[in-house]
Design goal:
With 123 residues, the protein is an all-beta fold. It is built from no helices and eleven strands. The strands form two sheets. Strands 2, 4, 5, 6, 9, 10 and 11 form a seven-stranded mixed beta sheet that branches. A hairpin with a 5-residue loop joins strand 5 and strand 6. The radius of gyration is 15 Å and the shape is elongated.
Length: 123
């Protein structure tokens, strides 16, 4: 089974920065799209940033210009650099990855979630 191990969460003051990291380990075919979702207290989980294996990126509107996502396909890692953090960025951030197997006829992707890492942005 593939496991996602997250690191980098913590407490930071508004205007500060954090870098979240996630590494996929274990048995997998290949890692397709990777990224981060976040869930604020009492709110629905939402996309923070995702990046495909080919480098296509999508950010949450609120993160545009402040978040930078990157990946290392050789190391099966994805990072999220967050700057100018705001209190509304507070939440649990979950690493996301797709375990992908392809053939000439078939495509199968299993979504894998990390356990989550807490980001708290204080006033």
């Amino acid at each position: 089974q593939v496991q996602l191990v997250e690191s980098g969460g913590g407490l930071v003051q508004a205007g500060g920065s954090l870098r979240l990291s996630c590494v996929a380990s274990g048995s997998f075919f290949s890692i397709g799209t990777m990224g981060w979702y976040r869930q604020a207290p009492g709110k629905q989980r939402e996309l923070a940033a995702i990046i495909t294996s080919g480098g296509t990126i999508k950010y949450a509107d609120s993160g545009q210009g402040r978040f930078t996502i990157s990946r290392d396909n050789a190391k099966n890692t994805v990072d999220l650099q967050m700057t100018s953090l705001k209190p509304e960025d507070t939440g649990v951030y979950y690493c996301y990855a797709e375990n992908v197997k392809t053939s000439l006829r078939d495509y199968f992707g299993m979504i894998i979630w990390g356990k989550g890492t807490l980001v708290t942005v204080s006033t």
